[in-house]
Design a protein that fits this description.
The chain is α/β, with parallel strands linked by helices. The protein has one domain: Rossmann fold (3-Layer(aba) Sandwich). Helices cover 29% and strands 16% of the residues. A 7-stranded parallel beta sheet has the order 3-4-2-5-6-7-10, with helices on both faces.
């Protein structure tokens, strides 16, 4: 008789972003031109207003002007900050960078600059985190989602492994999967980073846990511009970069490998300038699927706002994924990359914010047309 698999005790530490005391330049996210986010906000009158994102990460810099008046709650599940459960202050910078990409509206402007944010600290400043804390944070979201209008959860974290299916995970996942499924049933999108370890895993297809779970929205990373070469701590090297090119660190899983759980969407994630932890005007820069994930969360908030304004309710998470992919642009893995990883030579999809919200509009328009025909 075999022992029951257990959840892993620890998550690897996240890499702190580069920090600055104030913005080098005053601008929206530099990925905006590639992403078409400003055009989406203007064309459809959406900003994330009335919605809230819960960010499970290293916490948040609550005094930053980028978040002024919109941190509606916070919770700390780690021993950091003197074990104060009500203090989710970020001493690493990762969570603040992620949160700013989604909702910043001060020195920086995020994808959904009118949305509220709740930092749930599940990663320590220096020594990683625990999946137990993540499960506790998801319970908190389930219990408080209605009170705070939580419509999305951002999880830029993972176990560093590389799975092609849920049954390949060597520990119990039922509790985590049940919580994410519960949120999905309540139209709350749980968006998770695919992972940054494509090079250490010898360029084999796969994603980390919990991104491999089919109930979530999984996200890989692309570059948004030609910014030269980059070398990463994982060993991955991009000798050059180009808009739409998959980053050499990004894990990826194609539908032909697993039609039930695959990398749903790619987004710009290298490098991304956002809010920082050095005071009320701090700035940070980081690369990763950790940065691509909040980009998708921000776009989802815009889509949810547009849909809710028209229907009075949130859309199903599967519909959000359909619209993200329908409005996305194809990217081919292996056509223009110059790096030190092997390529799948398969086509994936990267996000376009304007087309994603327009895909929602087209869906609603079709529904109206079908209803009109049915009643005529």
């Amino acid at each position: 008789m075999t022992d029951t698999p257990q959840i892993p005790a620890e998550i690897n530490p996240v890499e702190p972003p580069m920090q600055f005391d104030s913005p080098e330049f005053a601008f929206d996210l530099e990925i905006d031109r590639f992403l078409m986010a400003p055009q989406a906000r203007q064309a459809f009158g959406v900003t994330g207003n009335g919605l809230t994102v819960a960010v499970l990460d290293t916490g948040l810099n609550p005094i930053h002007i980028d978040f002024a008046g919109r941190v509606v709650a916070q919770r700390n599940f780690t021993p950091d900050n003197n074990n104060n459960a009500d203090d989710a202050t970020d001493g690493n910078g990762h969570g603040t960078n992620v949160g700013g990409i989604i909702v910043a509206n001060g020195d920086h402007k995020g994808i959904a600059p009118a949305a509220n944010i709740i930092p749930l600290k599940v990663l320590r400043n220096t020594s990683g985190g625990s999946f137990v804390w993540i499960e506790q944070a998801l319970d908190w979201v389930i219990e408080n989602r209605v009170r705070y209008n939580i419509s999305a959860v951002c999880m830029s974290l993972g176990d560093g492994q590389n799975y092609t299916a849920e049954d390949g995970i060597p520990y119990a996942i039922e509790t985590m999967q049940t919580k994410i499924r519960t949120l999905k049933a309540a139209q709350v999108a749980v968006v998770i980073a695919a992972g940054n370890d494509f090079f250490p895993h010898h360029s084999q297809q796969g994603m980390s846990y919990p991104a491999i779970l089919r109930e979530c929205v999984s996200v890989g990373a692309v570059y948004d511009a030609d910014e030269g070469g980059f070398q990463y701590h994982s060993g991955a090297i991009a000798y050059s970069s180009k808009a739409g090119q998959i980053t050499p660190f990004s894990q990826r899983l194609h539908p032909t490998k697993n039609s039930d759980t695959y990398t749903d969407i790619f987004a710009p994630g290298a490098p991304v300038t956002s809010s920082g932890i050095n005071g009320p005007h701090g700035e940070s820069i980081q690369h990763g699927t950790s940065q691509a994930t909040p980009v998708i969360v921000g776009v989802i908030l815009l889509m949810q706002e547009f849909y809710r304004r028209a229907t009075g309710q949130l859309p199903e998470v599967d519909d959000l994924v359909t619209w993200l992919r329908r409005g996305g642009a194809p990217i081919y893995d292996g056509d223009d990359e110059h790096d030190n990883v092997q390529h799948t030579h398969l086509e994936y999809i990267r996000v376009d914010a304007l087309s994603a919200v327009d895909a929602v509009r087209r869906h609603l328009q079709k529904q109206l047309l079908e209803k009109s025909i049915a009643t005529s």
